[in-house]
Description:
In chain A, 65% of the residues lie in helices and 0% in strands. Chain A is built from 4 helices and no strands. In chain A, helix 1 (6-17) packs parallel to helix 3 and helix 3 packs across helix 4 (54-77). With 555 residues, chain B is α/β, with parallel strands linked by helices. Chain B has 15 helices and 20 strands. In chain B, strands 3-13-14-15-16-17-18 form a 7-stranded mixed sheet. In chain B, strands 10-9-8-7-4-19-20 form a 7-stranded mixed sheet. In chain B, strand 7 (304-306), helix 10 (314-322) and strand 8 form a beta-alpha-beta unit. The longest helix of chain B has 19 residues, at 70-88. Chain B is globular, with a radius of gyration of 26 Å. The interface between A and B is medium-sized, with 33 and 37 residues.
Amino acid sequence: MVRLSSSDASLLMDVLEQQELSPEDRLNLLTTANPVVRQIGEALINPNVAIDDPEIKEAVESIKRWADDTRESEEKQHLYA
Amino acid sequence: MEDFSSTSSPITIGEHLRFLLPRLANVRQRHSPVWPADVFAVAMSLIQKSGIYTLILNEWPPTADSGETTEEWATKMERLGKRWREYAGRDEPRAPTIVTKHWRLLMQASSRGLDHFRKDRALAHVLFELAAMADEASAGVGLPRSPSGALKFGNFYRRARRQLLPTYNGSSLCIEIDRTRLRVLPKMHAPNKGLTIRSLSHHLALCAGDEICPFWETSIAYSANRESLNLLVIPWPETIRPVQFKRVPRNKSGMRNMPNDFGFFEFLPETNRGEDGNIDSESFVAHIEQLYREATAMLGRIDGIVFPELALIPEQFDALREAEFTQKIFLVSGIAKTPDADNPFSANELYCDIPNRERMFQSKHHRWKLDSGQIRQYGLGSLLSPERSWWEHISVDNRKLNFVSLLPWLVMSVVICEDLARPDPVGDLLRAVGPNLVIALLMDGPQLKERWSARYATTLAEDPGSSVLSLTSAGMSKLSRPSSGANRNKVIGLWKDAHSSTPVEIELPEGCGAVVLSLSVRWMDEWTADGREDRGATGYPLLSGIHGVKKASNF
């Protein structure tokens, strides 16, 4: 299992959230990240990035699922609008 | 005796402000903080220290505009809070004009004592409004939020999330106010009984700075659509033998001068070992997997597994975490560690492990004291004399409390045994934040409604409104003999929430090795004492199912 620190998880949320930025600028957010976090972040920005490591792949899928579900839930509830 | 009364003087508003924000000593640095949590800390701490929160029920709403109804005032606070949220997320953050105007009024009263707020009610109202606007601005902080950067408040929540990231001394939402001075944390419940400082806010909690470090972790593992959770509760171990309670020789206790009425004991965990003498984690994991599969077949999904106090040793927990079936669920367990060459104390800790995140650790804050009644209750008299009291030989110097934000309706906190019962210092933090779910891991007898855990669970369910689960091991429950009446050692857990009239006893049915508890959310309105409603944004986890899980064999 991939183990993310609090700041790793927060950084990946930054990458997911800042969709107004260009892909290059979002990639730049990962400059200081460790290789695993960087790989997850790249896959979140570009779904075509190939990932060999099944644990990293699973982490990417899990974060994507969470992001989609949470967005859908908030839209339903009009939270914080 | 020399008279020192002439040298003492009451604290002034300015002195208190400079304690929180040292920059205010510089006349050019007296502007208002722009971040809501900083202003909240200043306003709420003044409201608390001056005790003026009791005025709020007499002067409702706390507005300078006497023509305003409570509803109009609350709507105004909400509107201004939202504006502040947007302003505070900007690249050049700022506070709304009304905040800076209020702040100036506060600064003008710097030389006054704290009792001035009782005389100058308009200034008291300024504090109430600053706190209310900051609270409204912070709705939803600390909860798992969607990556919806296009929303106009995205920057604010991103900033709040980064600010809350734990450092070596824990978490706080404040930017300008150092964690050692005062903390502000997200808040889940506004208590609806009594009147305290906690009655004044929905979303932000004022917490003491330095005595205990709170750590806030936000999960990105569970779908926010989820309106229920299934917890597999395993009252492990199934058997505990009295010989596992061992007296610690006085010369190893570190307290040689302790009176003879007291002694120390340690608890020795027992684990299966293979022929080579190594811990046999494989058969343990297989046993838990069988329970997990059985539970999943019954309910379709298990979201987390919970073990009681001192249930596992680190090697067992690690083996369980590595197993394929636990990869998408959270694990919580009490952990027993025996002394080693570096540490003469046993360790009584908990591990909390959510998917894809680093493990969270927490030590027990208080030693268990076994008295003569308990020694008889557990039949330990031949090992520990009932003529003395026996303290648990653990170190208690690492005091922290984890808050795990799992879902928009579920912030969870786990405590170990005595920490549920002893109100200081962990109790203050629990009451301030009001986690939706508190899990107490116990090494205790049956969890009967009449016993101590039910009393403390009821207290937390009433104020702040947390749902509480206490869990002991089947082994410890079986070891317990009642002084009178029937033996009810099948009751391994207890549930209490704000909406159940009495605690619910959780029995382990015959032939079962675990119980699944289904928790469902009920969204409820909560009100602050200043008349602000949260529009049903508070989630109460309620018990919606109890199912025994058959075990395949005796482990």
